[in-house]
Specification:
Elements (H helix, E strand, L loop, with lengths): L9 E5 L5 E4 H20 L10 H21 L7 H16 L13 H29 L9 H43 L3 E4 L2 E4 L5 H34 L3
Antiparallel strand pairs: 1-2, 3-4
Helix pairs in contact: 1-3, 2-3, 2-6, 3-6, 4-5, 4-6, 5-6
Length: 246
C-alpha cells in the first residue's frame, strides 16, 4: 500500500527532451500488455474447428462472453465493438489484480481510468457529430432553450469524469481502507502483546488473516466488478449516441 495518496512513483527517467519520467504505472501497463500477449498466444496456439484442448475452450468462452455482452447491450449491429470492449475488460481487470502481487494497482492512478473515459468520450462525440453534423452538435448544447447551455456543457464534461472517478474512487478507496486496517491491526497487535520481533523484522499476529480477506474483496471482487461496470457504461453511452443517427 506504499505510495497511496502520493501518486505513482517514477520508475526511471529517459534522458531525452529534457528528461521524460516513466512512472510505475507505465511500466506495469506495458508488463500487462506483454503478459496478455503471451496468454493470447498460448490460448490460441494450434486452434481447431472443433475445440479439443482446454485452452481453446477457455479462449472461446471468453470471446463468446464478450460477444454476448456487446450484442445484449448494443445490439448485433455493433458487434464490431467487441474487441474494444474486450480490451477494456482485460486491461482493467489485470490493472486492478496486479495489487495481489504487491504492485500498485494501475486503476489507482487517476490518469488511467481518465484516459479510458476520454476514449469513450471521443467515440460518443464522433457519433453525435456524425448524426447532426458539427453545427448540429454545438447547437445541441442550447437545446431546448439557450439558457440550458451551461448545464448541457456541464453534463457533457461530467460523462468522462464520472466514469473515471467511479473506477478510480472504488479502487483507490479500497486500497486506502485496507492500508488503514493493516496499520490499525499492527497497533492492536502491539497492545495485545501479539507482535513478535525476529531478525529485526516485526510480525503482528492480527495482520495475518483480516488484510488478506479485505484484499480479496477490494482487489479481486471489486476490481472485476468495476471493470465490468466501466465496460458496460462504455457500451451504453456509445450505443445511445449511435442511435441518434438511426
Amino acid at each position: 500500500m506504499d505510495g497511496i495518496g502520493q501518486g505513482a512513483k517514477v520508475a526511471f527517467t529517459l534522458p531525452i527532451f529534457g528528461g521524460i519520467e516513466i512512472t510505475e504505472t507505465i511500466v506495469i501497463g506495458w508488463a500487462i500488455i506483454v503478459a496478455v500477449l503471451l496468454i493470447c498466444l498460448f490460448l490460441t496456439k494450434g486452434l481447431a474447428k472443433i475445440p479439443t484442448k482446454k485452452r481453446q475452450i477457455v479462449a472461446e468462452m471468453f470471446v463468446g462472453f464478450v460477444n454476448n455482452m456487446v450484442e445484449s447491450t448494443m445490439g448485433k449491429k455493433w458487434k464490431h465493438y467487441a474487441p474494444y470492449i474486450a480490451t477494456l475488460l482485460v486491461y482493467a481487470i489485470f490493472g486492478a489484480l496486479v495489487s495481489l502481487l504487491g504492485l500498485r494497482s494501475m486503476t489507482a492512478d487517476f490518469n488511467v481510468p481518465l484516459t479510458w473515459a476520454l476514449m469513450t468520450f471521443i467515440l460518443i462525440t464522433y457519433y453525435k457529430i456524425r448524426s447532426g453534423g458539427v453545427l448540429g452538435y454545438f447547437k445541441g448544447f442550447t437545446s431546448p432553450v439557450f439558457v440550458m447551455l451551461p448545464l448541457n456543457l456541464l453534463s457533457e464534461v461530467a460523462t468522462p469524469l464520472s466514469m473515471a472517478f467511479r473506477m478510480f474512487g472504488n479502487i483507490s478507496g479500497g486500497a486506502v481502507i485496507t492500508a488503514l486496517v493493516y496499520g490499525a491491526l499492527a497497533a492492536v497487535s502491539r497492545l495485545a502483546h501479539l507482535a513478535f520481533q525476529f531478525s529485526g523484522l516485526e510480525f503482528n499476529a492480527l495482520q495475518l488473516f483480516i488484510p488478506a480477506v479485505l484484499s480479496i474483496y477490494f482487489d479481486l471482487f471489486s476490481g472485476c466488478i468495476q471493470a465490468y461496470i466501466f465496460a458496460t457504461l462504455t457500451m451504453v453511452y456509445v450505443s445511445s449516441a449511435a442511435e441518434q443517427e438511426q
